[in-house]
Write a structure and sequence with these properties.
Order of helices and strands: HHEHEHHEHHEEHHHHHHHHHHEHHEEH
Strand order of the largest sheet: 2-3-4-1-5
Number of helices: 20
Shape: flat
Radius of gyration: 33 Å
Number of domains: 3
Largest sheet: 5 strands, parallel
Number of strands: 8
CATH class of the largest domain: Alpha Beta
CATH superfamily of the largest domain: P-loop containing nucleotide triphosphate hydrolases
Strand content: 5-15%
CATH architecture of the largest domain: 3-Layer(aba) Sandwich
Length: 486
């Protein structure tokens, strides 16, 4: 017969071997769950993503359940568990019914097939009480652990869900409820003295320790001993962590994927015989481009050519990609309305009649000789171009008026064919709704209420910049700059 307050050290040793750098959490969790240690009613396990919360809990519970079923001692306590992933449950009722099903399957309860709808916590309590009612003397020190994994991401959760679930252990004596989440609030369960187990993020030394073990350890390199490969891998993972910790390896899986992607390129000189595994500094200098180029980790990223700064290349790349995508995805009417919105945001209303009226704009604008260019000469006192300033709000009716006044000329200038040209009775309302849903048009107010998209007095502003609008305009054969008053 085992002594009181005795942990199964053989199980913990194998578990600590499987999850390095988490021995303190494993022992604390086993102490709070094992029936002959210090079992608790409720337990909160929290920590950031990919810190081993769910994996350690699941493997420990599985090991304790397996040991309980294999124990030949009649006085050995019964131990069982069920894990419910809250992210897989659409509603609170779905969560309750999933709990009943998981507990019934874990206990192999014969009446689980006859359980009906479970819509409230009260109904859940009744069903769990039926299944977890222990009458035999040898079952009085048994323990059942119910785990709610990711309960903070439960959809359509009522505000009293967690406090109600925390009361289950007060009604069912042999029940322990575990809540796995990211960051608990001070009054999460509204119950005093609830133990909390924190899984902190891994440190650099812990990252190196974990990655230097299977299954992360790579095979030996050609013409290199296994020890030299291990030493090189340890120094390589440290360099990757220092170089790419923030953008690419914020978690253990991210760092492992990054190391796996860079390792063949980093060790290519060793495989080719030009460098030795001990020449880490020379290998790092030869592979410095891989630590600076994000295209290695994200093949879809392409950088601009030319001797320009990184910030300039990034800005031009994003603008070019955005304008190309919009020109390909948006229908013609939506593109024309987006240009009209940009003009309404960057041109003063007093210039609308001069630029867009039929009486003034009888001739086409070619080579920058339009009315906008003529007005620019009279406004030389402006020191900053209007297109460089932030967009101003405009009334929806004004944008539609600009679209109606310029649509015919912009369509005629389009050489893509009649099949791509917007018709006179195009669905302007649908195009405006599409731009608003994509946040290309942003509502800033209106007397008709924020929900009325077609309110003629509603105020909007354009949500894209000059580079995007210029690309969209050129896809329609429109030089937007000729319509701007500087």
């Amino acid at each position: 017969m085992a002594n009181i307050f005795e942990l199964p050290d053989d199980l913990l040793a194998s578990l600590i071997e499987s999850f390095p750098c988490r021995d303190a959490q494993i022992r604390a969790l086993a102490t709070l769950l094992y029936p002959r240690a210090a079992p608790c009613r409720n337990l909160i396990i929290h920590g950031t993503e990919a810190t081993g919360k769910s994996a350690v809990t699941s493997h420990l519970l599985e090991a304790l359940s397996s040991a309980s079923s294999r124990d030949d001692d009649d006085d050995a306590p019964l131990f069982n568990h069920a894990i419910v992933k809250s992210v897989e449950c659409v509603t609170a009722r779905h969560l309750y019914e999933r709990v009943v099903g998981a507990v019934g399957d874990a206990l192999q309860w014969e009446g689980r097939a006859t359980v009906g709808r479970c819509e409230t916590v009260a109904a859940l309590t009744v069903e769990l009480t039926k299944m977890l009612k222990y009458d035999q003397p040898q079952e009085r020190d048994s323990r059942f652990v119910l785990v709610f994994d990711g309960i903070d991401r439960q959809r359509e959760a009522p505000p009293t869900l967690l406090p109600a679930l925390a009361r289950l252990s007060e009604i069912i004596p042999n029940l322990t409820t575990i809540f796995i989440l990211t960051a608990p609030s001070p009054s999460l369960l509204r119950v005093s003295s609830v133990p909390q187990l924190y899984f902190p993020p891994y440190t650099k030394s812990e990252y190196i320790t974990i990655l230097s073990r299977p299954p992360y350890l790579p095979p030996s390199l050609p013409n290199t001993t296994p020890q030299e490969t291990t030493d090189l891998w340890a120094r390589f993972t440290a360099a990757v962590h220092d170089a790419l910790a923030k953008p690419a390896s914020r978690s253990l899986p991210g760092l492992a994927r990054t190391c796996a992607a860079l390792w063949p390129r980093f060790t290519a000189p060793v495989a080719a015989g030009t460098h030795r595994a001990r020449e880490f500094t020379k290998l790092l200098v030869a592979a410095r481009a891989y630590f600076q180029d994000e295209a290695v980790l994200e093949p879809g990223i392409t950088l601009a050519k030319g001797p320009i700064s990184t910030a300039t290349k990034t800005g031009e790349k994003e603008a070019r990609s955005s304008s190309k995508d919009l020109a390909a995805l948006l229908p013609p009417t939506a593109r024309l309305l987006l240009i009209a919105a940009y003009l309404a945001s960057h041109n003063a209303p007093r210039h609308d009649q001069t630029i867009f009226s039929t009486w003034h704009s009888g001739r086409r604008r070619r080579g920058g000789g339009g009315i906008a260019h003529h007005i620019t000469k009279k406004a030389k006192h402006r020191k900053i171009a209007r297109k460089l300033l932030g967009p101003s709000a405009f009334v929806l009716e004004r944008m539609v008026a600009i679209y109606a006044a310029t649509r015919q000329e912009w369509v005629n200038d389009n050489d893509d064919g009649a099949e791509n040209q917007p018709t006179v009775d195009g669905d302007v309302g649908m195009a405006i709704a599409t731009l608003a849903s994509l946040r290309l048009l942003i509502r800033v107010g209106g007397a008709g209420g924020a929900g009325d998209t077609m309110d003629r007095g509603g105020k909007w502003r354009v949500g894209v910049g000059w580079e995007v609008v210029r690309g969209v305009g050129r896809s329609m054969g429109v030089e937007v700059e000729e319509w701007l008053v500087e």
